[in-house]
């Protein structure tokens, strides 16, 4: 395949991924907002509602590896479209769950909608399949960045949901999830119809045509994932970066609204703080991708660690100042962006071609699982200590990554 053709196909792939990501994340974005409100209404129990709140995250963790295996076997097109459609099914199950207050459908729907989160993550890796090594960071960051649009719009589906409710008599939450389901159906349809040729299958075909030797597959998805990490130092470094950033970000973000309200902050202040945090997570992603490509992944991960440190210091030293807490959350989002984008791009660069889709699904599943665990643990930890103590624990979590960044030989932290 001549380079011009590869470049043209890559541009087409990025367009398809970007547009489908916008539609898909509109649907995914409804789960942590309206999904929480629905869970509280349907269950009428804080304990059960708490489980329902984490169902979508658990779904993303459980489905990440199978969807990665689907991509490995049949290509990105089938995995991404199938994942969006599975998430759409989850959203549509939540329509009767809201309308008729059905607990079983509530849990099933939220679990399946987690497929959308898994596919949103897998889409960023799909953007790197045909990208040149010195452009993988920017390609991945573009897909992360456009997801901001859906992430912002999704939590606000209650407004058109109310309009549907007024016109049809549907419950307002049912109307919101109906819109979410349609959006994710469209995302899957766009990928299925337009992602041709499939970037992952195209790479394999080119390797076969060039006579490249491909490693023999091991049995078992988990064995392949574990083997890749055991034998690939740079992959281990990337995974530690991704997981560390996820744990720290989720733990602090989860407890900030409670901390703010306990210190007299209003609900609107909580909303503004979280919105600015999300903006920090995604708005600078293209710039982060450029930095990673230009100066190396280890440099940008180190920058993310420094920003994380500033965030934790701001929140830990000034826990009663809402201005400092807001600053802390913005920096937390930016630090996460630097480490997550850089770690993900490094991972996409250094993993073996034969195991690419499977192990990418594995790291996404592990990331979601770690995020869910961090969310569960953060509450009890802060209950028995304080918000400042939680920032100290978060800083300790970052120490292994800091050690790897400073001590691992240059070849283990560079992109080449």
TrEMBL record:
Pfam name, any one: MFS_1
Occurrences of domain Major facilitator superfamily (MFS) profile (ranges): 13-412
Keywords: Membrane, Transmembrane, Transmembrane helix
Annotated membrane topology: Multi-pass membrane protein
TM spans (from-to): 12-39, 51-71, 78-98, 104-127, 139-158, 170-194, 237-260, 266-285, 297-318, 324-351, 363-383, 389-410
Protein name: MFS transporter
Entry-linked PROSITE patterns: MFS
Compartments, record wording: Cell membrane
GO cellular component, one term: plasma membrane
InterPro entries: MFS (IPR011701), MFS_dom (IPR020846), MFS_trans_sf (IPR036259)
Molecular function in Gene Ontology: transmembrane transporter activity
